[in-house]
């Protein structure tokens, strides 16, 4: 089955982890033998070859660069200018993959339909399609920079990541969106960008919902009712997103899938982390919605974690093909399964881009 993954940090892995994503996953892992500068060295799950093997022909691919001032303990760049430059380096990598024929940037409905037709009808090698998203808006110095980013193909944006941001407060932070956040939301709506509600803290989330009426999705967020953490959405937030015709992508980071996970210590097998837990998350949203039209996949695989912190029955991203049989076993119809694997996000894009 064709798969749409709504959140992959491909350029971050290429540029900051120095991974050549054209290689098979096994070769990337072998190249990192003995390295310990990142917690997931030797445990990667994503490459362009693995995506093709798993029929993951389209994804939302990120740019990401946090600004961290002297009072922010989180790692990041020392100025917004540096953060912008980092995102442009990531964009240059995507552009080089397009030039090499490995990837294809999707920015409008015509390009989307053409790419889907290629994946449906063409045999052999096919480029991975990607829709460009900015995870955390710290690199946007002013609204002129957002206009530049849009002109370069940016089509979705999350105002915050972890901690306090320039435009909103994110995971593990508490605070609202303020005047700058409202200015950002106004420009997002003006450009018909997709607002990604992922990572917004509760106060920023609800303030955003109060003033923003444009298209919104959540690329990679799970359910607080199943794992109680502010990174997850409460049932009330999920219902608000459903009301706004949003789609919520399910991530595969183990600490978001099972309670009491201890980063760096817990083990997926010992904690019983399998793809079945993703089905639990999917089912919870479907029960709240009364249908299967508001949930999809946003795996976040290799988002600073690898096999040491993802389902034990997933070796590479190609194993997303294990999900349809699990959904079928839970009683989901073939149409529902197709919508979860790709259809819901595609219908969202067709609605917004039409």
Please tell me about this protein's structure:
- There is one protein chain.
- Helices cover 38% and strands 11% of the residues.
- The chain contains twelve helices and nine strands.
- α5 links the parallel β3 and β4.
- α11 crosses α12.
Proportion of residues in helical segments: 25-40%
Q: Which term fits the overall shape?
A: globular
Largest sheet: 7 strands, parallel
Oligomeric state of the chains in view: single chain
The number of E-state strands comes to 9
What is the average of the pLDDT values? 97
The radius of gyration over CA amounts to: 19 Å
Q: How are helices and strands ordered from N to C?
A: EHHHEHEHEHEHEHEHEHEHH
Q: What is the terminal-to-terminal distance?
A: 25 Å
Content-based structural category: alpha/beta
Percent of sequence in beta strands: 5-15%
Low-confidence stretches: none
Please, how many helices? 12
List the topology elements.
Blueprint (H helix, E strand, L loop, with lengths): L3 E5 L1 H6 L9 H7 L16 H6 L4 E6 L16 H20 L3 E3 L3 H13 L6 E8 L7 H9 L2 E5 L19 H13 L3 E3 L5 H10 L4 E2 L17 H9 L4 E3 L24 H15 L5 E3 L25 H7 L4 H20 L1
Parallel strand pairs: 1-2, 2-4, 3-4, 4-5, 5-6, 6-7, 8-9
Provide a short characterization of the protein structure.
The chain has helices spanning 10-15, 25-31, 48-53, 80-99, 109-121, 143-151, 178-190, 202-211, 235-243, 275-289, 323-329, 334-353, and strands at residues 4-8, 58-63, 103-105, 128-135, 154-158, 194-196, 216-217, 248-250, 295-297. It has 354 residues and is of the alpha/beta class.
């Amino acid at each position: 089955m064709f798969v749409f993954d709504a959140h992959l940090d491909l350029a971050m892995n290429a540029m900051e982890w120095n991974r050549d994503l054209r290689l098979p996953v096994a070769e990337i892992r072998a190249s990192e033998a003995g390295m310990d500068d990142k917690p997931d060295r030797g445990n990667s799950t994503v490459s362009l070859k693995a995506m093709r093997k798993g029929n993951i022909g389209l994804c939302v691919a990120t740019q990401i660069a946090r600004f961290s001032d002297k009072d922010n303990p989180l790692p990041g760049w020392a100025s917004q200018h540096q953060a912008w430059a980092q995102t442009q380096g990531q964009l240059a990598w995507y552009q080089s993959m397009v030039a090499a024929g490995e990837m294809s940037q999707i920015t409008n409905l015509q390009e989307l339909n053409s790419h889907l037709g290629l994946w449906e009808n063409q045999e052999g090698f096919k480029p991975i399609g990607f829709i460009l998203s900015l995870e955390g808006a710290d690199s946007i110095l002013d609204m002129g920079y957002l206009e530049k980013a849009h002109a370069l193909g940016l089509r979705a944006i999350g105002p915050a990541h972890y901690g306090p941001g320039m435009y909103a407060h994110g995971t593990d932070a508490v605070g609202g969106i303020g005047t700058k956040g409202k200015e950002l939301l106004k420009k997002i709506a003006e450009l018909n960008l997709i607002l990604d509600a992922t990572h917004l803290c509760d106060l920023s989330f609800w303030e955003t919902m109060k003033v923003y009426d444009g298209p919104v999705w959540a690329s990679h967020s799970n359910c607080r009712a199943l794992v109680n953490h502010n990174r997850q959405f409460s049932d009330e937030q999920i219902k608000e997103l459903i009301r706004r015709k949003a789609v919520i992508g399910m991530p595969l980071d183990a600490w978001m899938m099972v309670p009491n996970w201890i980063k760096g210590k817990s083990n997926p097998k010992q904690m019983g982390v399998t793809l079945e837990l993703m089905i639990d998350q999917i089912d919870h949203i479907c029960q709240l919605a009364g249908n299967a039209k508001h949930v999809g996949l946003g795996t976040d695989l290799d988002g600073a974690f690898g096999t040491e912190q993802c389902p034990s029955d997933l070796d590479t991203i190609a194993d997303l093909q294990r999900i349809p049989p699990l959904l079928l076993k839970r009683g989901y119809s073939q149409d529902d399964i197709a919508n979860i694997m790709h259809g819901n996000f595609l219908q969202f894009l067709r609605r917004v881009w039409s």
